[in-house]
Amino acid sequence: MAYVAVKGGERAIDAAHAWLAAERRGDPAVPALTTAQIAEQLGRAVDRVMAEGSLYDRELAALAIQQAQGDLIEAAFLLRAYRTTLPRFAYGRPVDTAAMLAIRRVSAIFKDLPGGQVLGPTYDYTHRLLDFALPDAPAAPAEVDAEPQPLAPAFGILGQEGLVEPDEAKSDDAPGDLTRDPLAFPAARDVRLQALARGDEGFLLALGYLTQRGYGNNHPFVGELRVGEASVEIEPPELGFAIDIGDVVLTECQMVNQFTGSRTAPPQFTRGYGLCFGHSERRVMGMALVDRAMRGAELGEPAEAPAQDVEFVLSHCDNVEATGFVEHLKLPHYVDFQSELETVRRMRADAEGTSK
Amino acid sequence: MSGYNFAYLDEQTKRMIRRAILKAVAIPGHQIPFGSREMPLPYGWGTGGIQVTASILGPPDVLKVIDQGADDTTNAVSIRRFFARTAGVATTTRTVDATIIQTRHRIPETPLHEGQILVYQVPLPEPMARLEPSRAETTRMHGLQEYGLMHVKLYEDIARYGRVANSYDFPVMVNGRYLMSPSPIPAFDNPKLHMSPALQLFGAGREKRIYAVPPYTAVRSLDFDDHPFRAGRAPGICALCGADDSYLDEVVTDDQGTRMFVCSDTDYCNERAAAAAIQGNAA
Amino acid sequence: MSDALLSARGLGLTFGPITALDEVHADLWPGEVLAVVGESGSGKTTLLNVLSGRMAPDAGTVWYRDPARHLHDLHAMPAPQLRALHRSDWGFVHQNPRDSLRMRVSAGGNVGERLMAQGIRHYGDIRAAAQDWLAQVEIDPARIDDLPHTFSGGMLQRLQIARTLVTHPRLVFMDEPTGGLDVSVQARLLDLIRTLVTRLGIAVVLVTHDIAVARLLAGRLLVMQGGRVIESGLTDQVLDDPQHPYTQLLVSSVLSA
Predict the structure, then answer these.
(1) Can you give the CATH number for the domain in which C254 is found?
(2) Containing structural domain, residue A257
(3) Quick one: which of A81, B235, C137, C173 is 20 to 30 A from C208 by CA?
(4) Which of C116, C127, C144 is facing B152, going by the closest CB pair?
């Protein structure tokens, strides 16, 4: 018999990795990318990888993007696998986003507001025409003369009238942490927001979109969308006061939704919330829509659409988990398939036996 | 490997996982949630099994890793390498020599002995997941031991096909209390779960659950009194070692559709072939 | 209340400003059919949910007497015990059979589920019981392997009844069991329910807005309005000689219809 059992798995893996490295580098005649170039010039990709990788480090995110050949889910996975090995020195204090130095702040519910509408760097009003001159653009672009500034949150205005639900009462309980403790249902809002903040951008976008198209309608308005640098503080127990350990760029969205009132609450506007690392308006808007949709039970709304089903959303929003489970189907399953094969053969034999 | 702890995971994490394992051993078949970590291998590649192995592995251990019963499938090779690199432990392909065997989709043919630990990689720990997708609801069903739904599924299969259609991941009752997924092993392997002298640990990384079957625990495949559980295998003998009792893979050997059957358990097959060769020389 | 299967005392429940139940007393005796009638919003469905333990009242107690004649405070029972009760000694027939049936499971599997939940592990026995019950509810036993979605509305309701009665419960809650069915289908179903209930001696709490259904099935009647029981008594007595103006209105609206 000519058959010899397959051997040489190790050699095959080494060869595959070598090939991958060569493919990653591409044509050696083309200069290699630097991580600095990626960090500076592919900023939105870096932002997404930092958000989904749950790690704020532009250099490492850039490295992950380079190593993953620009596959952003693979890059987020690399970043997460590194993050999980890091020791934890301290937990940060809640970030004060109201005090952030905003480069951009818009509100869709006010024509104007204290501090004004600040467009900042946005694609919103660009004409999507391929710019063939871009590769040859001058090395030094035009100077930006705007100064980032702290801006009072738009919500203060509505809050004064009691028309918008207030912030949840501050709690002394430590917030949950999905990366340490397994998800359990029912999941509280802190854990839900954490899951969404690192969830897949496409999933958040699709679910948010669904809520606008009648699958869990929640009549949203962008109360405020802001992007800017906020300081991160920790309070070491031996010091007894907070110290600033650096700044992070954050995007925050406060979505306002109509609400007719319930047994216990007067009619008022409710809110959905989105916050993420880096600059990603799509992510925080999707997140805010889904956050609001998942609050249905608390507000006495029927949960009929996927976005309103907390277990559905949280169990499926993580793209590193999702891609692992979908892609693992390409691993060998021949033992299971063999048992299916035998069962189908036996069933067919039974069926032929009875039809004769 | 420098920069990483023995067997990759930090000791705090290992302690957390060992606590989950101890709980799992104390309540056979019951799924214990644990703080599954992101591993440098993807979910679906055995992150649950790897975390369990990493948490119980010590320098004197001898590790065997199989996928589909074989030591030389790429994922088994990759996981074995991972531990050889991060823990520097001895590895083996011989079932009898191993102290820990990490497996995907098979239980070795060679009977396990006391002191051995079999670590299963589990994709979906919840045996009722395909009947009831909500984990909150299945948790309640386990708590109340409400397993009628699972039997309805078996009833439906028999009514429709004349037999239970699950040929792998065939649900079992552990110690007469908890319904458990044995992971996607072929039903052929189910009887080996019962009263095994080895400790059997199950790790599901993506689903963040650990469960266990302690040594000498009763594990019964679900069935009806008048439709008893039957373990199937391809009718045939191994073309390499002549075994007629092992689970067989079907191998297509040419483009005319010529097939042959060989043992899925490569160690079992090699040992038998070697023994036959010695006997042949002696004769 | 010494022999009653179920006794409710002083039940009260409010939803914000709405009073769903107000000082409701009720007793159910073995083998009797008690109808709760009233318009929508009268509190009759809330009463059914509270009596069956599916909803907790703000005030009052529901006592349940088990087959060993022990009394239990229904809403103090642990969840596992209450769930076990619901799949053995009790049954629930929903207005919409789709709320109870498993639509992707065959008729036989639907009927057999409660038996399997009780630990019966003989396929042949389960199948025989399912066939027997299909016949009892006038469904052709040859359809045992068909999926419910191939059944008509009336058949679905009969299948739900077979699924509920297969474990011989002593008490069945029915929520508008004939609602949403054609008049001719309704008549046949009512006839079937009456026959089965009489033959098996099952006690029933029946919620209906339809006085004619109550007259046909129930021995006793509670008339509810605004969460209160405003009139109660033997069905014939209440319907032939209603005392409360609201009951008079209910009865006359049936007559004029």
Answers:
(1) 3.40.50.300
(2) 97-121+150-166+177-323
(3) C137
(4) C116
- Tell me which chain B residue has its CA closest to the CA of residue C118: B148
Q: Which of residues 19-38 of B touch A (CB under 8 A)?
A: 33-38
B69 tagged catalytic: no
Provide CB contacts within 8 A for A188, sequence distance 6+.
Answer: A176
Whether the Cβ atoms of residue C205 and residue C34 lie closer than 8 Å to each other: yes
Q: Which of A51-55, A147-151, C138-142, C226-230 has the lowest mean pLDDT?
A: A147-151
Neighbours of C256 (CB within 10 A): 6
Are A160 and A44 members of one domain? Answer: no
Active site residue B238: yes
Same domain, A38 and A159: no
Number of domains in chain A: 2
| Contact status of B48 with chain A (Cβ, < 8 Å) | no
Residue A354 binned pLDDT confidence (cut-offs 50, 70, 90): low
- Please say whether the beta carbons of A35 and A62 come within 8 A: yes
- Give A333's contacts in chain B (Cβ within 8 Å): 68, 105, 184
**Environment class of residue B254 by beta-carbon count within 10 Å: exposed (0-12), middle (13-18) or buried (19+)?**
exposed
- Please check whether residues C222 and C142 belong to one and the same domain: no
ipTM for the complex shown: 0.87
| Residues A87-99: tens digit of each pLDDT | 888 888 999 999 9
Structure tokens at B206: 């993506």
Please tell me if residue A264 touches chain C, with a CB cutoff of 8 Å.
yes
Place of tokens 């007393």: C25
Residue C215's domain comprises 1-89+171-257
